[in-house]
């Protein structure tokens, strides 16, 4: 289980099935089309972090946000599917902490890029992603509840195999070029 201490007695850890009721509550408060219990349950085996903070009065911990990520293309590409913070705890760096933890996990897994889709009108989310260096790669228009919505496909490149290739010694390329010619001839 991934556990990471953050400031103010907060802990980020992998979600378990026991967390799902609270996750569903935050999801309902955060999205017009909330996910079902089954959706969250199915994604438990992927990257699914919750952040919890100590509630000193009752000496318990309470989940205040979560992030759900799936790894695709032989785990080379990650996709942020869902991130939400309880409305009472927004604007305190909780989403930033969740994304930072996910990025640390991606670097251990050799993930090359991270993608996500975000409603262009969701300025706080767009700004959050831009803060981490995500760039708009595509713009799409969807019909949601009979209204047109503009969505951004945003991408963050973590590791560029092309750049690594160009850092290799020159001799290596002679061999590769020669070998390629032999194959195509
Ligand atoms: C988007 C969301 C996850 C941000 O969570 P948060 O914990 O409040 O965000 P943070 O405090 O970590 O802020 C990180 C950065 O995001 C941006 N941001 C967050 N809230 C913002 C706001 N209301 N206005 C503008 N920028 C905002 C800022 O760049 C901020 O960095 P800064 O504080 O250094 O300026 C939260 O508002 C939320 O749960 N929204 C509903 C669900 C949702 O829209 N999820 C995203 C779907 S793609």
Descriptive notes:
The protein has 185 residues and is of the alpha+beta class. It has a domain at 3-111: Aminopeptidase, CATH 3.40.630.30. Helix content is 34%, strand content 37%. It is built from six helices and eight strands. The protein has an eight-stranded mixed sheet with strand order 1-2-3-4-5-6-8-7, sandwiched between helices. The chain is globular and about 50 Å long. Coenzyme A binds at residues 30, 83-85, 90-96, 118, 122-125, 127-128, 131.
What's a concise summary of this model?
This protein is α+β, with helices and mostly antiparallel strands and 185 residues long. The chain has helices at residues 20-30, 37-42, 94-108, 123-131, 161-166, 170-184, and strands spanning 3-6, 10-14, 47-55, 60-72, 77-85, 113-119, 135-144, 147-157.
Protein topology:
Elements: E1 3-6, E2 10-14, H1 20-30, H2 37-42, E3 47-55, E4 60-72, E5 77-85, H3 94-108, E6 113-119, H4 123-131, E7 135-144, E8 147-157, H5 161-166, H6 170-184
Parallel strand pairs: 5-6
Antiparallel strand pairs: 1-2, 2-3, 3-4, 4-5, 6-8, 7-8
User: Structural class, please?
Assistant: alpha+beta
Characterize the overall form: globular
Strand arrangement in the largest pleated sheet: 1-2-3-4-5-6-8-7
| SSE arrangement, N to C | EEHHEEEHEHEEHH
Under CATH, the topology of the domain at 3-111 is which?
Aminopeptidase
N/C terminus separation: 52 Å
Spans with pLDDT under 50 lasting ≥5 residues? 168-185
Percent helix among the residues? 25-40%
Which second-level CATH architecture of the domain at 3-111 applies?
3-Layer(aba) Sandwich
Content of β-strand: 35-45%
């Amino acid at each position: 289980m991934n556990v990471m201490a953050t400031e103010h007695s907060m802990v980020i850890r992998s979600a378990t099935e026991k967390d799902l009721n609270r996750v569903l509550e935050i999801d309902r408060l955060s999205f017009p089309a909330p996910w079902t219990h089954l959706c969250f349950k199915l994604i438990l085996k992927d990257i699914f972090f919750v952040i919890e903070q100590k509630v000193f009065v009752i000496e318990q911990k309470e989940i205040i946000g979560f992030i759900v990520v799936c790894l695709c293309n032989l785990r080379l590409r990650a996709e942020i599917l869902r991130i939400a913070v309880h409305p009472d705890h927004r604007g305190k760096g909780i989403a930033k902490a969740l994304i930072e933890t996910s990025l640390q996990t991606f670097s251990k897994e050799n993930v090359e890029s991270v993608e996500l889709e975000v409603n262009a009108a969701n300025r706080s989310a767009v700004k959050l992603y831009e803060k981490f260096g995500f760039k708009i790669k595509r713009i799409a228009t969807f019909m949601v509840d009979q209204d047109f919505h503009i969505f951004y496909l945003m991408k963050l490149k973590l590791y560029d195999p092309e750049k690594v290739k160009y850092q290799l010694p020159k001799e290596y390329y002679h061999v590769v070029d020669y070998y390629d010619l032999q194959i195509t001839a």
